[in-house]
Structure formats: C-alpha cells, structure tokens
Protein: Trehalose-phosphate synthase
Amino acid sequence: MRGSARVAQDTERTAPDTAAKDGRAAGSYDFLVVANRLPVDRAGDSPDDGWKRSPGGLVTALAPIMEKSDGAWIGWVGSPDEEIEPFEHDGMALVPVGLSASEVELYYEGFSNATLWPLYHDVIAPPEFHRTWWDAYRRINERFALAVLSRAADHATVWVQDYQLQLVPAILRARRPDLRIGFFNHIPFPPPEIFSQLPWRRQVLEGLLGADLVGFQRPNDALNFARAARRYGGAGGKGTNLLVGRGERAVHAEAFPISIDTDRISQLARHPEIQERARQIRHDLGDPKTIMLGVDRLDYTKGIRHRLKAFEELLVDERVKVGEVTLVQVASPSRERVEQYRLLREEVEGTVGRINGAFDTLQHTAVRYLHHNYPVEEMVALYLAADVMLVTALRDGMNLVAKEYVAARYDGSGALVLSEFTGAADQLKQALLINPHDIAGLKEAMVAAINLPPGAASRRMKAMRRQIIVHNVEEWSAAFLNRLSEVTHG
Ligand code: G6P
Structure:
C-alpha cells in the first residue's frame, strides 16, 4: 500500500532529516491523521516510563485503519518545550509536533480555547479576540501542515481533526493538490450571525474550504458552515454542496455523528471485577437508594452549575433527601491556565462546599465531588453504580459520556437525563430530554428519572442501546472515509 517516496520539501521543525528519522523514507504514508493531540499520554512522570494509549474513541476508530493503510498520526504531545522524534506505539507511527511554552499560551490556551471554543459554543463565555493569538494560530497550523507535507505519499488521504487546525486543509491544498483532504469538526459550528464576530472569519472559512469533505456532528452544523462559507468565505453552490475557486472545485459539508467503542464498554461492564467495584462504590457512598452521576471535563459548556443548582433546590424543597440520594460529580481537570476555566472551578467548588455544608450528615454526603481523571475501568464501574446519569450541557458537539453510560447499562436498567443541546440528543431520543436553562424542568426530569418505573426505563435504555450498537465509532470513521473517497473520485 506504500505510495511512491517523495522528497521532503519543507523546512522549519519538520526538516527532511527529521522526517527520515522514523526509519521511513519521507513522503511514504498513504493515510495521515492530523490532530492537536497525539493519541498517547506519558505512562508515568519520567520520560523513561514510555507512553500509553489515550482514552477516547478517535484512536480506537483510527488505529486499525492506520495499521491497514500504512498510516501516521501527527500531533502535539500535550506539554510544552518537548522535541520528540517520531516513534511507534501500538503499531502506530506517531509524529510529534513541538510547541514552546509561549506557543501553548497563544495558540492552544489563547486562540483555540479562549477565542474559538467559546465562540463555537454559543458564546456561553465571552470569546477574546487578540491579534497575537491569531498570528500564533496561523503559524502553528502551518507547522502541522508542514509535518504532513513531508510525509504524505502521492495521492495520500489526510484527515484533519477539529477546531485547533482549521487552516491546515487549505495549506495542504495549495502545496499538494494531489492529496485527498478531509476535515472533521468535533465541536458545534455556530450560526453565521455568531461566527461573523470573528475578525479572521474569512481566513478560517478559506482554510476549511481547502478540504474535499468537511464533516460535522449535526446536520445543522454543516448548514451553519455552508451559510457562513457563502456569506463570508467566497463559496458558491447550493445547500451544503459548495463550490470554490471560480466554481471549479466542490467542497461537501455533511454530518457524521461520532460515537464510541460500544463493544468495549459493554464488555467491560460485564466484567465481574468491574461489577464488584460498582457494588463497592455504592457501599462506600453509604448504599443510598439512588446514585446520580455527572461526568464531565470541568468546562463551562457542560452545565455543571445548572445541575448543581437543580440538585440543591431539590434538597431545599425536600424532594430528595441526603442518605437516599447522592450526586457523584466527576469533573476532570481541563485547560487549567485559561481564566474562564479557573473561574468555573472556583464557582463549582464553592457551590459543592456550600451544598455539602448545609445538607451533609455525619454518615452521608449530598455531593461527592471528584476533580480527577479516571481510567476507563473505573468510569464503567461508576456508570454501573449510577441509577441516573445527568448530562446537562448548555452546548456540546456530541457528548460521548451519554453514549458510554448507555453502552454500560447492558441489562437495560438506568435512566439518562440528557440536554437537547448535545449532538447525542439526535441519536438518544429515548433519554429524558431537558433544556438545562429551564431549572424547573430539569428538576422535574431529575425526579422523574429517580422514579422511572423499571419497565419504562428498560424500554428506553434498550432502544438507545440498539442505536449505539449499530452506530459505533468504527462505523463513524468508515462512513466519513468512504464518503471522502466517493467525493474525490467524482
Ligand atoms: C474536546 C475537543 C477535543 C479536545 C478535547 C479535550 O472534545 O473537541 O479536540 O482534545 O475536548 O480538550 P484538550 O484541550 O485537553 O485537548
């Protein structure tokens, strides 16, 4: 499957000699994934501890394809000032892109996560626009693109992932028109009325329009993008079939809702040790009648404050009682140097402290708050222990936690309270759907979930399980890549 070798033409950090150090001739990969992060984390504190595969669906979906099609994954290792040579892990060729501390601040914390992230999530937090951040974003996108250019075989397929790398498709297109270029946006794409606030809206749209196929989570995201591309990006065409460059080239915008490795989660949930761990968790919490669970990155898009407010009011109203109901909130640390995330953490932790101060007894807690990352086995044990799962995001591209909960409930028990502002709500239609801004409605749904009769709960859960068993992450990546090859073969 190897394409013809190509002489590396780029400079900067991915000079030809670097490209050759992975033991391969430069320009020989037929399939490249480009994402802000590599699919591995350090296995310990010291660099000698090696690497372990990151949790998450994307790598599960793509690892087999990478092996079969002679692929490489290009991404950042997640910490500043590290110059790491390309290496292999789990049969995958990994190509690290280095970022200095100041680049992390400007490109990752700044433009990606304090400009684009809030702008694309309904301006829940105010986006900041700084020219220095934009300059860094452009520069770093160029760096990722250069790492591709020196490694892609003739007519290779390149799949660019997410909002951190929106300029990469056009950079690739300009220098390597032979490539087949796909882009997938994992987060929402806002309506043009919001997107248009971005001072660099034209450049971002032109960047994305470098792709042959631009994938989104929901049909509405694809439509938002297409409208913005026509209004501000110089594109023509109809609906989500766009035309660029004097009408010569087609760009397709379509929805491909991402999913999870359903089998793996279901299998873990059937594991006796994990089931024992779930019983232990219930016991450690004082065997309450009902455990409610929230699992989120500590992010203001997730509606954690709304969830806590609703729960606190239920306690005040005495519709739920400590000892009978416990809320477990796992909030995994995220983007901790970004101001809005710091403020959120203070607020959430203050609220949890206040609720527990008022309602805890010596034996029981109202909210068990855990600011940690857990391995997948522990997450599945938590899903099994939880009678009610709360997903109250104010805006979320997909929300894979909702799907994981459903995958873990193989016996059909459990209740899912799910925000209608998540991509997952399109697929998990039998959840108790809520508008998280409507606190009264959220409270009613929480009480309904606690009291859901087993028969009704099981009918809902089984219908949702059928959906994610068919539409798993493997199906997602296959659907995207098949469509990419279809649209590029004319
Ligand atoms: C979202 C984004 C991903 C991102 C992840 C974790 O799911 O779509 O691109 O990797 O959040 O955020 P982080 O900033 O830690 O990579």
